[in-house]
Amino acid sequence: MPQLSQWYVRAAFTYLIMGFSFGALMLANKGVPLHPALWRLLPAHIEFLLAGWVLQFALGVAFWMLPRFWHGPSRGSETGAIVAFFSLNLGLWLVVLGTVLTLPPVAVTLGRILELLAVLSFTSHIWPRIVPRN
Amino acid sequence: MPTLTRWFLKTALLCLIATLLLAVLLSIGRIWTLTAVFGGLGPVYFHLLMVGWVTELIFGVVFWLFPRFNKETPRGRPWLGWSVYILLNLGLLLRVIAEPLNAQRPGEVWGWLLPISALLQWLAALSFVANTWPRIHGGPRRQAREV
């Protein structure tokens, strides 16, 4: 597994634990009311699991598994995938902190822009690798 | 394909079918008034999809395809792998039963099943990461490690 995929997957696993932790607290609170403030974790729970776990894991495995080039660097220029990693994680935290801490809406918007940049950046890397084997 | 992966994948498919059946019921509920318990099925639908289908599918395939832990125990500790399966599905099943009933009749015994469901699913995620983290590496392991 290439180093960059290891970063992606380790990050995804970390978000899996955080997302499940927040979700477990809210689910427990639903059955046995603990504290109403726990519901503020809902946006973070969603973001950690959708963007941090599922999306990030998929990107990491795609970077690893999709067809490689026969000439030159086997995975081509990795810049797009590297930029995507940092942009996705930075954007994710901006969205989470923006919603949980009720920051000015520009924080969430900036976070979403960074997440979009991440997807565009990753796409620019992976598109040429989506090829038939023949 | 290892046995545990087959169990994960088949269970994930069953959860997907259950999700879509639920989607049909929820859409019927917009046309005709169904029994009140169906009103609490929204979160169940979403979690059957994301935990029962997506996450369970990922767990099963990861268990199968990720780099080997070592030659002797290529997929880590088998008991921990099976624990993930049992904890996740038991927790999800408890949620499917208890959440709509708790929504309809809060403060009864159903409410106490939800923290148990939460704990089981959380332990499943921890167990999965504990069993899989050592398999995130770049190449074959030279020496066997104590499991």
Topology:
The complex is a heterodimer of chains A (134) and B (147).
Chain A lengths: L2 H29 L10 H24 L13 H22 L4 H22 L8
Helix pairs in contact in A: 1-2, 2-3, 3-4
Chain B lengths: L2 H26 L13 H24 L12 H27 L4 H24 L15
Which key phrases capture this entry?
heterodimer, A: mainly alpha, elongated, B: mainly alpha, about 0% strand, disordered C terminus
Number of helices of chain B: 4
Q: Report the end-to-end length of chain A measured between terminal Cα atoms.
A: 24 Å
| Overall form of chain B | elongated
Number of beta-strand segments of chain A = 0
Structural class of chain A: mainly alpha
- How many strands in all of chain B? 0
Indicate the percent of residues in helices of chain A.
over 70%
- Tell me the span between the first and last alpha carbons of chain B: 22 Å
> pLDDT below 50 for ≥5 consecutive residues: which ranges of chain B?
142-147
For the residues shown, what is the average pLDDT of chain B? Answer: 89
Secondary-structure element series of chain B: HHHH
What characterizes the major β-sheet of chain B?
none
Task: Please report the number of helical segments of chain A.
Answer: 4
Q: pLDDT under 50 segments of chain A (min length 5)?
A: none
The H/E string of chain A reads HHHH
Apparent shape of chain A? elongated
Sheet with most strands of chain A: none
Work out the largest interface and the residue count of each chain: A-B, 23 and 30 residues
